[in-house]
């Protein structure tokens, strides 16, 4: 079985998720925005071996700790989509602007595209390219767990901001309705901030995409 545990990191309380295979104890970390020592302690506590970094997008609160973590443990960086290259290039400036510890630059080991997959132990998750919040935003979906790690595309009762450079509101709505909803009303999603919800609940009650 795949398991996961969400750890809010940085002053932005970004939901960094540890995902692991119960059998092999192999783990990936989704969006290590910061607080690296805390994340490593969480892994040690569960006797997990961190093998990969997966990124939904390259905003500072999601990607700020990536370079440090990858260098410390010699880890591959998987994602996001190439559309977020300019956000990666701007991480040092982002860290200064938002009062984060200095963020290093990195080059993804593997860029992700719509329809790709990522593998952890014997488990496979699907990748969907969901632009709008950022042009290179991706989502990780596990049909096995009925869980989707959606970054800042969708929140409980809200949606991602589109007022950052290269944000696009129409694209974001299309990403949600065309790429998230088909995953099923009973799929639980882990957003980049705040509590979990289900796609079905958001389809009914979210003021931005309810009824779509």
UniProtKB/TrEMBL annotation:
Keywords assigned by UniProt, alphabetized: Hydrolase, Metal-binding, Zinc
Domain Metallo-beta-lactamase as annotated: residue spans: 13-193
Required cofactor names: Zn(2+)
UniProt xrefs under InterPro entries: MBL_Glyoxalase_II (IPR051453), Metallo-B-lactamas (IPR001279), RibonucZ/Hydroxyglut_hydro (IPR036866)
Highest taxon, organism lineage: Bacteria
Chain intervals for the UniProt region annotation (Disordered): 193-212
PANTHER family, per database record: HYDROXYACYLGLUTATHIONE HYDROLASE GLOC (PTHR46233:SF3)
Protein name: MBL fold metallo-hydrolase
Species lineage: Bacteria, Pseudomonadati, Pseudomonadota, Betaproteobacteria, Burkholderiales
């Amino acid at each position: 079985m795949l398991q996961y545990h969400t750890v809010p990191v940085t002053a932005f309380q970004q939901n960094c998720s540890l995902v692991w295979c119960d059998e092999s104890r192999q783990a990936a970390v989704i969006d290590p925005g910061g607080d690296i020592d805390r994340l490593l302690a969480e892994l040690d506590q569960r006797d997990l071996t961190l093998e990969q970094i997966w990124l939904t997008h390259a905003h500072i609160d999601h990607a700020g700790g990536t370079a440090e973590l990858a260098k410390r443990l010699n880890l591959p960086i998987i994602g996001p989509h190439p559309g977020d290259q300019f956000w990666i290039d701007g991480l040092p400036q982002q860290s200064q602007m938002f009062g984060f510890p200095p963020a290093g630059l990195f080059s993804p080991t593997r860029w992700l595209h719509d329809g790709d997959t990522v593998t952890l132990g014997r488990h496979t998750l699907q990748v969907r390219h969901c632009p709008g919040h950022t042009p290179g935003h991706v989502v990780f979906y596990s049909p096995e767990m009925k869980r989707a790690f959606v970054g800042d595309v969708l929140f409980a009762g809200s949606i991602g901001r589109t007022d950052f450079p290269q944000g696009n509101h129409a694209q974001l709505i299309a990403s949600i309705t065309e790429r998230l909803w088909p995953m099923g009303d009973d799929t639980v999603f882990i957003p980049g901030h705040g509590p979990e919800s289900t796609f079905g609940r958001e389809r009914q009650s979210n003021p931005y995409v309810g009824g779509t």
